[in-house]
Please model this.
Amino acid sequence: MRLEIPTNAERFGANLFYQVQKIYELDGGYGVDSEFDNPFHVIQQISYERLHEIEKDMAIVIPVKDERLRLLEGVLCGIPHACLPIVLSNSKSEPIDRFRMEQNMVDTFCRHAKKKYLIAHQRSPELARIFKDGGYLHLLDDDGLVRHGKAEGMLAGIVLAKLAGKKYVGFIDSDNYFPGAVFEYVRIFSAGLSQGKSPYSMVRIQWHSKPKIVDAELFFTKWGRVSRITNQYLNQFLSHFTGYETELLRTGNAGEHALSMPLALALDYSTGFSVETYQFVSLMEKFGGVLPSPFPEIMKRGVEVFQIESRNPHLHEVAKGDEHIKEMVEYSLSVLWHSGICPATLKKDISSELRRLKIVRKNGEPIKLRQYPVLSTLHFDAAVRKIDWAQYGNYKPV
Ligand code: GDP
Ligand code: CO
Model:
């Protein structure tokens, strides 16, 4: 890949948030181009070898809830062979067993492709056992099963990736129509993570555009309704501490993102669709230097957050309605509002935005969402001892 070098960044404590990077060539060519020997260039080439090195250590978690099988199959097809896909499903098993259908499709697909994979149902007792054995009970509900929700599926996916011995974990939604876009996202993950100088890094994808039909014409929108709002307040949050107004953060709702495992295990998470925005809140709270950090090692090494703009348009299942959009805005802004370091002026602005959107009533407070503490407290050794890998597909860590 040939990728812009990020020249601009915002620093907040130990966090370095880089500006959005532009891709020049999805395929950067074989070998190392000696043109880049000159130090005065703005583009970098990331070699095939480097991309492969990361991809063989990367799991891609695919959260699924009642999506069309064809879409899920397309997503699998877009994932580079060296990566381990982990399908984490919360699909119905009644009246039709959709999960069984997913399992069959994924197994057949991977048998033909000779591809390693893992698949788990979010509500299966086996998956819950990992959290019981590991002594991390926060994720379990009264029935002793992993709670419902996208974030909850992602957390389970991170844990499976860690148990599978992976060093990186990425996330790709299962409702994507273009396998080519999925392929690009994973390449962006590996290219982004390859730039990290610290062991604690993250890559987030900014979509180039989303195609829509407007007056019978194809129109490519740049900003979704939710991202526009989330990013505005996220930037205000950051500006408050740096003292400089900024528009640098563009990926507050990036479902497509990847983390190095040590960072994935050191963040707090927030439930359902608030998970992506909350990653920024957790970074700012934990490593911003405003509150004492529970991880002095990370404070020393620093955290790097890369934002990269994809070239493919993003087309996913759109028939999910206005209520879904409202919920996304509510969830994203609530986690900012409830942060222990959210400035009072920003709280006021967020409250009036939520009132304007008729999400919160006058004098009402934004919803307080469930949070999960760092996964590094899970006893992975205890959990892995009893795990039966055959239950989860055809992958067995060495
Ligand atoms: P949007 O794209 O952000 O509007 O949200 P989607 O409704 O498309 O959800 C994002 C991804 O998460 C999709 O792949 C869904 O199938 C998946 N998903 C949604 N809810 C859950 C859940 O409770 N558990 C799991 N495992 N996946 C979920
Ligand atoms: Co979607």
